[in-house]
Amino acid sequence: MRRLIVAAVAVLTTLVLSPAIAEAHARECATPSIDRYQQWLASGEGTTLPATGSMLVPIHGSAFSPVKGGGGAADGEYAARIAFVGDEWHVAVLWLGNQFEAQVDLTRSAGFWLTYSATDDLWVQLRPASHWSGGAQWATAIPSTRGRLVTRFFSLRPEAWTSVPELGEPAHPYSVARGAARGLVFVGKTANRLDFRGLHVPRYTPPCL
Q1: Does residue 209 sit within a domain?
Q2: Assigned domain for 138 exists
Q3: Nearest-angstrom CA–CA distance, 144 and 116
Q4: Residues 6+ positions from 107 with CB-CB distance below 8 Å
Q5: Which CATH number does the domain housing residue 144 bear?
Q6: Domain count, the chain
Q7: Per-residue pLDDT tens for 174-199?
Q8: Is the pTM of this model over 0.90?
Q9: Which of 31, 50, 97, 134 could make an SS bond with 70 (beta carbons 3.0 to 4.6 A apart)?
Q10: Residue 140: which of 160, 116, 113 has the closest Cα?
Q11: Nearest-5° Cα angle at 53, 99 to 152
Q12: What does the pLDDT look like over 85-122, one tens digit per residue?
């Protein structure tokens, strides 16, 4: 009887977890990506390395030499790397839907898992399509890892998000940013070396383009 109960629990657990496991292990895209996110971009705002364009590099390649075209590395072998240079505001962008026009509803997601390293503290802003421009955005703090690679969970609950004091209060409610998100925008005012290796948003899988 005990064996039957254990077997039944194992089957039920597999059925419950299978969608989450399938989502977490979704195959990478045909072109360079990290967890199917293809557009990690240096925006040209602030002095950064690279200055503009893709932040994606092969993990075992040169630290800041962006990939060209498609292919060249196996699944899970890309990093998004950028260096913030000097004490000024810097901006790095991730398009959540892999194209600028896309909007993503994150109201069903409790938060996101980010695998990264950072040599100093920074912020990430959740910018909606309707209020994309400008620094007055809803943000949550991303702590320094002192250069160590870590995986941390960041909540999407309203109480976890605020404004960056120097950049101003957002004119739109947080519900707008969460319900029609265009991208995550990483901002910081100090020198920093950032290395992103993974991003998982439960209940959302980005489309490959």
Answers
A1: no
A2: yes
A3: 10
A4: 175, 178, 179
A5: 2.60.120.260
A6: 1
A7: 999 999 999 999 999 999 999 999 99
A8: no
A9: 31
A10: 160
A11: 70
A12: 999 999 999 999 999 999 999 999 999 999 999 999 99
